[in-house]
Inverse folding.
């Protein structure tokens, strides 16, 4: 009831300002994408006459024909990105949980030192790795192969940290002990008992890992030189080149196609994503 | 029987860490050492595999540090980061305070959070090209809008203006990250002990006073975390400046150090040795800056925490006295 009281007091100018600000920011978030989607359905001449329109036109298929008629191939990019992102995500969540399990369940001499080491790895900037990594992959003739983009995901320090924070209150050592008494082996206990208990944390980390890998540009751009191996972001960078210079409609359509899967994922899972961001920040 | 139960499982701790360690050594440690090594050699050119150590081991470093392009890139990186971080943290703080206000609840908060965070998950490469098109010349949506509103008469070539090109890069970074920072700060504010606010209320503190003396000091750890992660991310900024404007804009206006390294190593000149030296310099800058931030903030935060705890104790005493 108290709430009702204060609510009646409130129609002040301040609250109006607050809602005004929120609405302006909402428009700022949505408008660029709205313009993009609408322009994807308009012809280049229409866009040249008026670049902003809220009414879709009927040139979607025409734009698609021009887009795919040149170097941009959304299906190939999509397939490659799915392969790499899924592979990397599985590696990240599985092995990070395994590493966290080692840090939480077992008492070993190097445990504290290893945890400090994981935290240190988190601070390494990717640029320091990239030149040497490229040379290494080039020497073993693995450029244009997806494995160099997937396997490094096994060592994901931030994910290990998160999993450890989540595992400490969730997994009781008694559960592990009773499995041992039943004769379960350590690896089996991890896979059949610990892993299912970690499901919520795994879901959160999987989303973030997938999106990060899906969006990654630097490494795929230097490692993948054949067009049939391009990922979505590398494919997108083609739209910048001279090939599509004046084909505005097709450029907007290409951009829309790369963003569509992310929109679907985001609006289905936004609840978990927002909760995950909030959790990630409070680590001390 | 008892003895059998006391089997040491310690070895599994080591075994389960093997994949992580192996991947780290192979894909991170070895490449880093290789990068450092290349920085002291004459290694350049596509397809070459032999290289020699330089007589003057720091020749690449000297060349990079003397290069005006690298200096421009370094200056740009900090300028672009600063112009995005300051408004970002201010707006995020403002929104976090608004959304956590207990007396005046903002309706539709869940919706606003989802919408404000959204740009963060969209591929940066896509966002860069999208904004490049929005500010397009002669007929981009922004030009169209400004002309329809009568603000300008002729279409304006935005990306040929240094300040505008830089401003757009900073704006995109700001736009992509303020939602994320806001959510982190909201969870930080929700984690503050409500007793502190109650004590401040009893003291008759104003809303501004509560923000200044309770909210801000309590958020210090999270603010440091945000500052450091944003700094590390900002110094590595690549996707957006690389793809927004062709050839890094007029006079390299939007050239960042990461773009510089990419151009050195992977486009045209294939100067792996100089790119390696440049990335080493970048790493040292990041390390030194993070260390400075941590050092400065840590000391102060400990002192502030002590002060705060004293304050809380005092307030509690006062409340107790008033009540009883």
């Amino acid at each position: 009831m108290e709430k009702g009281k204060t609510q009646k007091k409130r129609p002040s100018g301040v609250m109006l300002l607050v809602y005004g600000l929120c609405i302006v920011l909402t428009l700022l978030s949505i408008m660029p994408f709205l313009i993009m989607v609408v322009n994807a359905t308009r012809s280049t001449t229409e866009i040249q006459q008026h670049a902003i329109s809220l009414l879709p036109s009927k040139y979607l298929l025409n734009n698609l024909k021009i887009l795919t008629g040149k170097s941009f191939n959304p299906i190939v990019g999509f397939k490659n990105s799915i392969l790499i992102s899924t592979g990397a995500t599985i590696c990240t969540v599985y092995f990070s949980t395994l590493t966290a399990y080692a840090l939480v369940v077992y008492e070993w001499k190097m445990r504290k030192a290893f945890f400090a080491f994981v935290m240190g790895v988190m601070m390494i900037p990717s640029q320091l790795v990239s030149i040497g990594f490229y040379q290494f992959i080039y020497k073993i003739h693995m450029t244009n192969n997806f494995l160099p983009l997937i396997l490094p995901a096994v060592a994901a320090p931030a994910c290990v940290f998160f999993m450890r924070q989540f595992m400490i209150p969730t997994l009781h050592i008694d559960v592990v002990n009773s499995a041992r008494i039943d004769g379960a082996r350590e690896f089996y206990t991890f896979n059949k008992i610990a892993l299912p208990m970690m499901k919520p944390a795994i879901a959160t980390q999987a989303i973030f890992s997938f999106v990060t890998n899906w969006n990654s540009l630097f490494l795929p751009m230097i490692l993948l030189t054949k067009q049939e191996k391009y990922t979505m972001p590398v494919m997108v960078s083609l739209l910048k080149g001279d090939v599509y210079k004046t084909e505005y409609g097709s450029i907007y359509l290409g951009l829309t196609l790369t963003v569509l899967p992310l929109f679907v994922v985001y609006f289905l899972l936004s609840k978990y994503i927002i909760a995950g961001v909030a959790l990630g920040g409070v680590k001390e | 029987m008892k003895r059998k139960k006391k089997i040491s499982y310690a070895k599994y701790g080591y075994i389960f860490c093997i994949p992580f360690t192996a991947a780290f050594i192979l894909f991170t440690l070895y490449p880093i050492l290789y990068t450092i090594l290349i920085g002291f050699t004459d290694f350049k050119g596509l397809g070459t595999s032999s290289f020699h150590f330089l007589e003057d081991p720091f020749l690449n470093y000297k060349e990079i540090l003397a290069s005006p392009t690298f200096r421009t890139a370094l200056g740009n990186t900090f300028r672009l980061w600063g112009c995005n971080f300051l408004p970002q943290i201010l707006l995020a703080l403002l929104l976090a305070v608004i959304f956590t206000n207990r007396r005046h609840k903002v309706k539709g908060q869940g919706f606003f959070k989802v919408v404000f965070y959204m740009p963060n998950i969209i591929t940066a490469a896509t966002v860069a090209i999208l904004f490049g098109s929005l500010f397009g010349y002669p007929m981009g949506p922004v030009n169209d809008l400004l002309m329809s509103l009568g603000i300008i008469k002729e279409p304006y070539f935005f990306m040929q203006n240094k300040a505008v090109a830089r401003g757009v890069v900073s704006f995109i970074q700001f736009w992509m990250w303020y939602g994320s920072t806001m959510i982190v700060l909201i969870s930080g504010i929700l984690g503050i002990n409500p007793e502190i606010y109650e004590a401040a209320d009893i003291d008759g503190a104003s809303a501004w006073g509560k923000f200044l003396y309770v909210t801000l000091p309590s958020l210090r750890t999270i603010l440091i975390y945000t500052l450091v992660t944003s700094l590390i991310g900002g110094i590595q900024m690549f996707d957006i400046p690389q793809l927004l404007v062709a050839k890094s804009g007029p006079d390299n206006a939007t050239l960042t150090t990461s773009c510089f390294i990419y151009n050195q190593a992977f486009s045209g000149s294939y100067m792996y040795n100089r790119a390696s030296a440049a990335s080493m310099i970048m790493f040292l800058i990041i390390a030194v800056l993070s260390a400075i931030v941590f050092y400065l903030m840590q000391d102060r935060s400990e002192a502030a925490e002590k002060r705060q705890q004293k304050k809380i104790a005092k307030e509690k005493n006062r409340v107790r006295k008033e009540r009883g």
Summary: Chain A has a mean pLDDT of 88. The domain at 73-238 of chain A is CATH 1.10.3720.10 (MetI-like fold). The radius of gyration of chain A is 24 Å.
